[in-house]
Amino acid sequence: MYLETExxxxxxWKDEDLxxxxxxxxxxxxxxxxxxxxxxxxxxxxxxxxxxKVKRDGFSLLPVDLKESGQFGGIVGLNRPQYEKPLPxxxxxxxGWRLPVSSWGKGYASEAAxxxxxxxxxxxxxxxxxxxxxxxxxxxMRVMERIGMKRxxxxxxxxxxxxxxxxxxxxxxxRLRRSEWHARAV
Length: 186
What we know:
Layout: E1 2-4, E2 8-11, H1 18-25, H2 40-57, E3 61-66, E4 72-79, E5 94-98, H3 108-123, E6 128-134, H4 138-146, E7 150-151, E8 157-158, E9 170-177, H5 178-185
Antiparallel strand pairs: 1-2, 2-3, 3-4, 4-5, 6-9, 7-9, 8-9
Helix pairs in contact: 1-2
């Protein structure tokens, strides 16, 4: 897969992505709204799952390169969640992102996610794309709103894979239907 925006390239995985992924996934600032940082082997396993999903579904989380420098700028993508305990709104396709601190505050997440929304609605012909995050993750919620997603207050949920009482368990759900995206994109 290959998508290009004004400042970014979204592409398939390469062996060279393993090290910057390990670094990003082991950074407590990046992983603040996840249950824990990832070890090198956990990070590598995430990349392997993403590659398998691309082969199976035609999409998954993918690396983002910064055009200006060629530097790894994080990951973004569409994904069919596959948790041991299903989410209350499955089946679905979600959009998500994770960027190293060096890529924060530059609009890269919104730019890459906008390109993936276009791909999801125009190429994959999806009817709806969702996004969700911990209720305390205001940065990701702002990205969701910037790309046109709307919060589904009735869809907010307790993440089934996070233990009761954990501050990350309450999650918010955002949705965007193709018709809403198309009305915004025209």
